[in-house]
Write a structure and sequence with these properties.
Order of helices and strands: HHHHHHHHHHHH
Distance between the termini: 60 Å
Largest sheet: none
Structural class: mainly alpha
Strand content: under 5%
């Protein structure tokens, strides 16, 4: 019998967050060197919700101490570790290494410096609404769905809650504040799901600035106000 969502989150919620950071990344953690994937998780989590680190350490260590058998996995009673490129016999030791890194980071206060995201997971963790916007409205199908980039932006604005538009605007400001090279902005757009080029004559940073300015002037239509008496 599969676990209820509340039970899953209590037992494996943060473990799942850590493992998700390894998507497309090597699980090459060593006792004296965390992997790039784990560094990304630490960097993001320390600066957004540091209290979750202790939960992650506890859940990972408990899972490693009591690895599930195939029957209980098939019944949905345990979290199935996705394929991270390691043989099954190495998973338990790898989890203990991760837990030790988390414990050391917490106990020694090893807070990673804030920096530009370095992995696909970190880009989306840090800029979730921008990822939704670019991946949803600027996929390779965008030229078939909209006459131009501005039409796609307008469709996002009129179909999205004002709070999400405001969140997107804030994330765009944060991305521009990184003051990246033009090639790095192009990489950021690709990592966040954009599959078409910015419109002419804009380079990536110029289009992001244009987009930010346009969204900054957006005013939600809440309909007519109450009638005056």
């Amino acid at each position: 019998m599969s676990m209820k969502p509340l039970e899953f989150d209590r037992r494996y919620g943060e473990l799942d967050q850590v493992i998700s950071a390894y998507c497309g990344m090597p699980a090459d953690d060593e006792p004296d060197a965390p992997s790039e994937a784990l560094q990304a998780y630490l960097r993001y989590t320390w600066h957004t919700r540091p209290w979750a680190l202790a939960t992650a350490e506890q859940q990972i260590r408990e899972y490693a101490r009591n690895p599930p058998g195939r029957l209980r996995l098939n019944l949905g009673e345990f979290y199935p570790i996705p394929d991270v490129g390691l043989p099954e016999s190495a998973i338990q030791g790898w989890l203990f290494v991760i837990a030790d890194h988390l414990k050391r980071s917490i106990e020694q206060g090893e807070v990673p410096l804030a920096s530009t995201p370095r992995t696909h997971w970190e880009w989306h963790a840090r800029f979730p609404e921008l990822g939704q916007f670019l991946g949803g409205w600027f996929s390779q199908d965008m030229p078939d769905e909209f006459p131009d980039h501005d039409a796609a932006v307008n469709d996002y604005v009129v179909t999205s809650a004002p709070q999400l538009v405001a969140r997107l605007t804030g994330e765009l400001h944060e991305l521009l504040a990184l003051t990246l090279e033009e090639s790095e902005y192009a990489l950021a757009l690709a990592e966040l799901g954009m599959e078409v080029d910015p419109p002419q004559p804009y380079f990536p940073s110029g289009w992001l600035t244009h987009l930010t300015d346009g969204l900054g002037g957006f005013k939600a239509d809440y309909g007519p106000g109450p009638a005056s008496g």
